[in-house]
Amino acid sequence: MTIDISPVTTSRTDSLAISCVYAEESRGVFEDCLSGASISSDVEISGSVDDNGGCITLRISVRFGYGGECARCLDPVSGSFDALIERTVITDPEIPEETDEDYVSAPDGKLDLDAVILEELLLTFPTKLLCSESCPGICPKCGRKKKDGECGCDKKEIDPRLKILEQLLEK
């Protein structure tokens, strides 16, 4: 979604409110970067673009629910994602590279809100969903969930490169 922030950049107003909802049919652009998770509710975006004495600042809040599978045990996982994004807006198409500031470019007073949100999702959304931080996963031999109890599989595994030496132990 592209937002026209020219009323703020041309000093016609000091603040521009942002409020939008991405319904199911338009939120697919965000699901592509969620590491196998799916968005289970509307993506709600609210915030503002403010001119603070010549320094234009974008402040938005992004909220949505998500679901997926635990990366260790494959149990269903659900949660909510909340992010506060704050960026300095510059109208010059050339963003300075040697700076600690988080800039977003808005040439001609047009701000690409999707790009800002996608960047934040890539940086802050978990790369692996877990049902709990202490999830033990599944047995690599039989596939039983370790949190359901011991499966009885032999945990001693011989390095395949040394497997031939096992024959010496049997004699």
Description of the molecule:
It contains four helices and eight strands. The strands form two sheets. Strands 2, 3, 4, 5, 6 and 7 form a six-stranded mixed sheet that branches. Strands 1-8 form a two-stranded antiparallel sheet. It is elongated and about 90 Å long. The chain is α+β, with helices and mostly antiparallel strands and 171 residues long. The relative contact order is 0.17. The protein folds into two domains: 134 residues, no CATH class; 36 residues, no CATH class. Helices cover 15% and strands 35% of the residues. The mean pLDDT is 86.
Which spans of ≥5 residues are poorly predicted at pLDDT below 50?
none
Please report the total strand number as a whole number: 8
How do the helices and strands follow one another from N- to C-terminus? EHEHEEEEEEHH
Span of the ends, CA to CA: 72 Å
Q: Largest sheet, described in full?
A: 6 strands, mixed
Alpha plus pi helix count: 4
Class derived from helix and strand content:
alpha+beta
**3D shape:** elongated
